[in-house]
Amino acid sequence: MTSHRLSRRRLLASAACIVASSVSAHARIVSGAMPWSPSLANPPAPWRPGPWLFFSADEAATIEAAVDRLIPPDARSAGGKDAGCAVFIDRQLAGPYGEAAGLYMKPPFVAGAVTQGNQSANAPAALYRTGLRALAAFIKANFAGKSFAVLSPQDQDSVLSGLETGSIALEAINSADFFNLLLQNTQEGYFADPIYGGNRDMAGWKLVGFPGTRYDYRDWVERHNEPYPLPPVAITGRPDWTVRE
Amino acid sequence: MARKLPAKNVAIIGLGWTGAILAHELASAGLDVVAIERGPWRDTATDFPPSYAPDELRYAVRLDLFLRPEQDTLTFRNNLSQTALPIRHFASFLPGNGVGGAGVHWNGQTWRFLPSDFRLRSHLEERYGKAMLPEDMTIQDWPLSYDELEPYYDRFEKICGTSGKAGNLRGVKQEGGNPFEGWRSSEYPTPPLKQTLGPALFAEAARKVGHSPFPQPASNLSQAYVNPLGLRIGQCTYCGFCERFGCGNYSKSSPQVCILPALMRLPNFSAQTECEVTRINLDSSGKRATGVTYVDTSGEEWEQPADIVLVCAFALFNVRMLLLSGIGKPYDAQSGQGVVGRNYAYQTTSSVGVILKDKILNPFIATGAHGMMIDDYNGDNFDHSGLGFVGGGYMGAGQTNARPIQTRPVPRGTPKWGAQWKKATAETYQRGFSLSTHGSSYSYRDCYLDLDPTYKDRFGRPLMRMTFDFHDNELKMSAYLTDRLAEIAKAMDPVEMTPSPRKGPYNINIYQTTHNTGGTVMGADPASSVVNRYCQSWDVPNVFVPGGASVFPQNHGYNPTDTVGALAYWTADAIRQRYLKNPGPLI
Question: Domains (ranges, CATH) in chain B?
Answer without folding.
Answer: 3-579 (3.50.50.60)
